[in-house]
Amino acid sequence: MAFALAPLPYPDTALDPVISARTLSFHHALHHKTYVDNLNKLIENDPLGAMSLAEIVRATAGKADKTAHFNNAGQVFNHDFYWASLKPGGGGEPAGALKAQIDADLGGIAKLKTDLAAAAVGQFGSGWAWLVWKTKDRKLAIEKTANADTPLARGDAPLLTIDVWEHAYYLDHQNRRAAYVQAVIDKLLNWDWAAEQFAMAKG
Ligand code: FE2
Predict the structure, then answer these.
(1) Are residues 108 and 144 in the same domain?
(2) Is residue 79 domain-shared with residue 102, that is, in the same domain?
(3) Ligand 1 mean position to 31 CA, how many Å?
(4) Which residue from 39, 96, 114, 182 has the least number of CB within 10 angstroms?
(5) Rounded (5°) CA angle 50-73-160
(6) 24-61, pLDDT tens digit by residue?
(7) pLDDT average, residue stretch 121-143
(8) Could you tell me the CATH number of the domain that includes residue 49?
(9) Could you list the residue range(s) of the whole structural domain that residue 115 is in?
(10) How many domains does the chain contain in total?
(11) Is the pLDDT score of 133 beyond 90?
(12) Distance 163 CA to ligand 1 centre (A)
Protein backbone atom coordinates (compact mmCIF):
# COMPACT_ATOMS: atom_id res chain seq x y z
CA MET A 1 0.00 0.00 0.00
CA ALA A 2 1.38 3.38 -0.98
CA PHE A 3 2.10 6.12 1.51
CA ALA A 4 0.40 9.50 1.05
CA LEU A 5 1.84 12.94 1.67
CA ALA A 6 0.06 14.07 4.84
CA PRO A 7 -1.25 17.63 4.60
CA LEU A 8 0.41 20.32 6.70
CA PRO A 9 -1.39 20.70 10.05
CA TYR A 10 -1.72 24.49 9.43
CA PRO A 11 -1.88 26.90 6.47
CA ASP A 12 1.47 27.54 4.78
CA THR A 13 1.36 31.16 6.02
CA ALA A 14 0.96 30.10 9.68
CA LEU A 15 4.63 30.07 10.68
CA ASP A 16 5.57 33.36 9.04
CA PRO A 17 7.87 35.22 9.54
CA VAL A 18 10.12 32.59 11.14
CA ILE A 19 9.28 30.19 8.31
CA SER A 20 7.69 31.91 5.33
CA ALA A 21 4.91 30.50 3.16
CA ARG A 22 7.45 30.24 0.35
CA THR A 23 9.77 28.05 2.42
CA LEU A 24 6.93 25.99 3.88
CA SER A 25 5.27 25.34 0.52
CA PHE A 26 8.52 24.32 -1.21
CA HIS A 27 9.55 22.23 1.79
CA HIS A 28 6.27 20.33 2.02
CA ALA A 29 5.05 20.12 -1.59
CA LEU A 30 8.47 19.45 -3.15
CA HIS A 31 11.05 18.16 -0.66
CA HIS A 32 8.73 16.14 1.59
CA LYS A 33 6.61 14.93 -1.34
CA THR A 34 9.70 13.70 -3.20
CA TYR A 35 10.63 11.50 -0.24
CA VAL A 36 7.08 10.05 -0.21
CA ASP A 37 7.15 9.42 -3.97
CA ASN A 38 10.62 7.85 -3.85
CA LEU A 39 9.64 5.60 -0.95
CA ASN A 40 6.52 4.43 -2.80
CA LYS A 41 8.61 3.51 -5.85
CA LEU A 42 11.10 1.61 -3.69
CA ILE A 43 8.50 -0.48 -1.82
CA GLU A 44 6.43 -1.38 -4.86
CA ASN A 45 6.43 -5.18 -5.16
CA ASP A 46 8.62 -5.42 -2.06
CA PRO A 47 7.80 -7.09 1.30
CA LEU A 48 8.62 -3.75 2.96
CA GLY A 49 5.44 -2.43 1.34
CA ALA A 50 3.37 -4.33 3.90
CA MET A 51 5.01 -2.51 6.82
CA SER A 52 4.21 0.74 8.58
CA LEU A 53 6.54 3.69 8.09
CA ALA A 54 8.13 3.19 11.51
CA GLU A 55 8.61 -0.52 10.79
CA ILE A 56 10.36 0.26 7.49
CA VAL A 57 12.71 2.70 9.25
CA ARG A 58 13.64 0.15 11.91
CA ALA A 59 13.88 -2.77 9.44
CA THR A 60 16.25 -0.94 7.09
CA ALA A 61 18.44 0.94 9.62
CA GLY A 62 22.10 0.05 9.17
CA LYS A 63 21.46 -2.27 6.18
CA ALA A 64 23.90 -1.43 3.41
CA ASP A 65 21.59 -2.78 0.68
CA LYS A 66 18.60 -0.77 1.98
CA THR A 67 20.16 2.71 2.22
CA ALA A 68 17.71 4.31 -0.20
CA HIS A 69 14.73 2.72 1.58
CA PHE A 70 16.02 3.95 4.95
CA ASN A 71 16.81 7.45 3.70
CA ASN A 72 13.42 8.02 2.10
CA ALA A 73 11.37 6.37 4.88
CA GLY A 74 13.40 8.25 7.50
CA GLN A 75 12.84 11.56 5.74
CA VAL A 76 9.08 10.94 5.45
CA PHE A 77 8.92 10.17 9.17
CA ASN A 78 11.20 13.07 10.13
CA HIS A 79 9.21 15.63 8.11
CA ASP A 80 5.84 14.43 9.44
CA PHE A 81 7.34 14.77 12.90
CA TYR A 82 8.81 18.22 12.19
CA TRP A 83 5.46 19.69 11.06
CA ALA A 84 3.88 18.35 14.24
CA SER A 85 6.73 19.77 16.34
CA LEU A 86 5.83 23.32 15.27
CA LYS A 87 2.71 25.45 15.64
CA PRO A 88 1.76 29.07 15.16
CA GLY A 89 2.03 30.83 18.51
CA GLY A 90 4.26 28.07 19.85
CA GLY A 91 7.41 28.38 21.91
CA GLY A 92 7.02 29.01 25.61
CA GLU A 93 7.59 26.18 28.02
CA PRO A 94 6.27 22.73 28.81
CA ALA A 95 4.38 22.06 32.04
CA GLY A 96 3.43 19.11 34.20
CA ALA A 97 5.10 15.73 33.92
CA LEU A 98 7.28 16.70 30.97
CA LYS A 99 8.62 19.77 32.79
CA ALA A 100 9.43 17.63 35.84
CA GLN A 101 11.26 15.09 33.64
CA ILE A 102 13.22 17.88 31.91
CA ASP A 103 14.20 19.31 35.29
CA ALA A 104 15.37 15.86 36.44
CA ASP A 105 17.19 14.71 33.27
CA LEU A 106 18.29 17.85 31.43
CA GLY A 107 18.94 20.47 34.10
CA GLY A 108 15.80 22.53 33.49
CA ILE A 109 14.01 24.22 30.63
CA ALA A 110 16.57 26.99 30.06
CA LYS A 111 19.40 24.47 29.76
CA LEU A 112 17.32 22.26 27.45
CA LYS A 113 16.76 25.21 25.11
CA THR A 114 20.47 26.08 25.12
CA ASP A 115 21.49 22.48 24.52
CA LEU A 116 18.87 21.93 21.79
CA ALA A 117 20.07 25.06 19.99
CA ALA A 118 23.69 23.91 20.31
CA ALA A 119 22.81 20.49 18.85
CA ALA A 120 20.92 22.10 15.94
CA VAL A 121 23.65 24.62 15.15
CA GLY A 122 26.43 22.08 15.74
CA GLN A 123 25.07 19.42 13.37
CA PHE A 124 27.67 19.45 10.59
CA GLY A 125 25.87 19.60 7.25
CA SER A 126 22.30 18.41 6.83
CA GLY A 127 20.36 16.80 9.63
CA TRP A 128 18.08 17.15 12.62
CA ALA A 129 18.12 18.14 16.30
CA TRP A 130 15.87 16.24 18.72
CA LEU A 131 14.41 16.09 22.17
CA VAL A 132 14.09 12.35 22.63
CA TRP A 133 12.91 9.80 25.20
CA LYS A 134 15.56 7.05 25.49
CA THR A 135 13.39 4.00 25.89
CA LYS A 136 16.05 1.69 27.41
CA ASP A 137 17.51 4.29 29.80
CA ARG A 138 14.06 5.76 30.49
CA LYS A 139 15.30 9.32 30.42
CA LEU A 140 15.24 12.37 28.15
CA ALA A 141 18.17 13.39 25.95
CA ILE A 142 19.11 15.98 23.35
CA GLU A 143 20.45 14.44 20.15
CA LYS A 144 21.45 15.42 16.64
CA THR A 145 21.29 13.13 13.62
CA ALA A 146 22.76 13.46 10.13
CA ASN A 147 20.84 13.42 6.86
CA ALA A 148 17.85 11.05 7.18
CA ASP A 149 18.90 9.42 10.44
CA THR A 150 16.30 9.45 13.20
CA PRO A 151 16.08 8.33 16.85
CA LEU A 152 13.33 5.97 15.71
CA ALA A 153 16.03 3.85 14.05
CA ARG A 154 17.36 2.98 17.51
CA GLY A 155 13.91 2.37 19.00
CA ASP A 156 13.85 5.68 20.89
CA ALA A 157 10.82 7.98 20.98
CA PRO A 158 11.23 11.50 19.59
CA LEU A 159 9.32 14.30 21.35
CA LEU A 160 10.35 17.30 19.21
CA THR A 161 12.57 17.91 16.20
CA ILE A 162 14.09 20.81 14.28
CA ASP A 163 15.02 20.31 10.61
CA VAL A 164 18.44 21.86 9.98
CA TRP A 165 18.78 20.95 6.32
CA GLU A 166 19.42 24.21 4.44
CA HIS A 167 16.09 23.83 2.59
CA ALA A 168 14.36 24.43 5.95
CA TYR A 169 15.74 27.94 6.42
CA TYR A 170 17.84 29.23 3.53
CA LEU A 171 15.15 31.31 1.76
CA ASP A 172 14.29 33.10 5.01
CA HIS A 173 17.56 33.21 6.93
CA GLN A 174 20.22 32.38 4.30
CA ASN A 175 23.29 31.04 6.10
CA ARG A 176 22.10 32.12 9.57
CA ARG A 177 21.11 28.71 10.91
CA ALA A 178 21.46 29.92 14.50
CA ALA A 179 18.88 32.69 13.94
CA TYR A 180 16.41 30.19 12.45
CA VAL A 181 16.96 27.70 15.28
CA GLN A 182 16.55 30.29 18.02
CA ALA A 183 13.37 31.68 16.45
CA VAL A 184 11.92 28.16 16.14
CA ILE A 185 12.67 27.45 19.80
CA ASP A 186 11.30 30.81 20.98
CA LYS A 187 8.21 31.07 18.75
CA LEU A 188 7.21 27.78 17.13
CA LEU A 189 7.97 24.67 19.22
CA ASN A 190 4.75 22.75 19.99
CA TRP A 191 5.13 21.69 23.61
CA ASP A 192 1.60 20.22 23.62
CA TRP A 193 2.76 17.74 20.95
CA ALA A 194 5.91 16.97 22.98
CA ALA A 195 3.84 16.34 26.11
CA GLU A 196 1.54 13.94 24.20
CA GLN A 197 4.52 12.03 22.78
CA PHE A 198 6.12 11.90 26.23
CA ALA A 199 2.95 10.53 27.87
CA MET A 200 2.68 7.80 25.20
CA ALA A 201 6.38 6.90 25.30
CA LYS A 202 6.73 6.78 29.07
CA GLY A 203 3.50 4.78 29.47
FE1 FE2 B 1 13.45 19.11 5.37
Answers:
(1) yes
(2) no
(3) 7
(4) 96
(5) 120
(6) 999 999 999 999 999 999 999 999 999 999 999 999 99
(7) 98
(8) 1.10.287.990
(9) 96-202
(10) 2
(11) yes
(12) 6
